[in-house]
Amino acid sequence: MTAAPQPLNPGRRDLGWQIRRTLGLALPVMGARLGLMLMVTLDSIMAGQAGGAALAHYGIALAPHIFLLVVGIGFLVGTVVLVGQADGAGEPERCGAVWHGALGLALVLGLAAAGVMAFGETVLALLGQSPAMAAGGGAALHAFAPGMPAILLYLATSFLAEGIGRPHAGMLIALGANLPNAALNWVFIGGHLGAPEMGAAGAALATSIARWLMLAALVAYVLTLHDRERYALVSAGQVTRRTLGRLVRLGAPLAVATGLESGAFTMLAVFAGWLGTTSMAAYQACINVVSFTFMMAIGLSTATSVRAANAVGRGDRPGLALAGWLGMALAGALMLAIGLVVLWQRDLIAGLYSDAPDVLALARAGMVLVAAVLVFDGLQATLMGAHRGAADVVVPTTLQGIAFWGLGVPAAYTLGVHQGLGVPGLLGGLALALTAASTFLTLRFRLVSRRPVKRYD
Fold this sequence. Notes:
Layout: H1 15-49, H2 52-76, H3 78-88, H4 95-117, H5 120-126, H6 131-144, H7 148-163, H8 168-176, H9 178-190, H10 200-223, H11 241-274, H12 277-313, H13 317-344, H14 346-353, H15 357-389, H16 394-418, H17 423-448
Helix pairs in contact: 1-2, 1-8, 1-9, 1-10, 1-12, 2-4, 2-6, 2-7, 2-10, 2-11, 2-12, 3-4, 3-7, 3-12, 4-7, 5-6, 6-10, 7-10, 8-10, 9-10, 11-12, 11-16, 11-17, 12-13, 12-15, 13-15, 14-15, 15-17, 16-17
């Protein structure tokens, strides 16, 4: 069993200890999120090796799928905030009620999202995709549907584990699930062992199956923790309307915030689909690199959110400020280093996704902008984590809306579609949105970190 985390020492302010504490929380979360994103990366690569059309179909299906997923995650992220604040305030028995409430919310959200995804071809046709793109992408979106309740239930449980300082199991499970996912990809994408050849839909089906395996493993881990009684993890009787209300009130603006960001990414994918199969395939290669690397920023964002929530729970304003600024600095340094590697190895990275010369040329050009996108994506994600921990969500949500929809999406359309710059133009619009978002959120956190802290109630 995982040992109980050491008590926080709110009086410590030395930088080395603070960095170790943040990274100690962030690294397992990074591993867990990378494990989830590695599934998408494996799907993209293995679908791409089956042909440019399969990669394009997978990419266009992923856009609405990710939008629905991150909106669901937004509603559930309040779990880690409320659990972190309860644990920081010395009230661990409240954590179980938060988790059980989050499970119920996750199930409702997962079933609703699956219902939308079941009509994948219609959804993509309404987004202006060609009949061929809508049919191929729609089949993949339909195959993603059965796994949606599983992934949201899994994430609700992982947020609980992260909030009480137990992120390692989620990391190991998410990474380990890539083995059955890869094997099932081989079976369903290419049609082996008597299975039909399903292309992009086969990759989505493999991921759906893997997600149910992940959920079963993580719930089993949580229910066998040696201190499960301390956190009241087994008793579901503690869930109240107040608990659900707090989750929804905190989660709704977070869902809007993540929906605004993901919706912008979805629109860029829609624009890429309008440009044709080659552009869609190249865009998917580029955006998958962004998304995969973003999972590292999510690790730091979650760690920052937990540390900020702990500080709020104990009434520690300097601790809140330190958690936010340190998380931002670590994210900036990490993403800058990764961006330089992407720039250096852009030929190799683009070649992983496709060997078609036209797709490869577009993807290689896009990787130059990907390197810049990564830095600002990491900064804004970590700053949003700091705001979540402080339960400051309405104003940051508005600021993100302005950055993505007031600046990024119009610029991407103008550059990529209207001016004919294609994939590089789309990524240029995204870079503008992320730069603006990180700037706005920096200024906002400067204000939040200077005022008296107040626990979310």
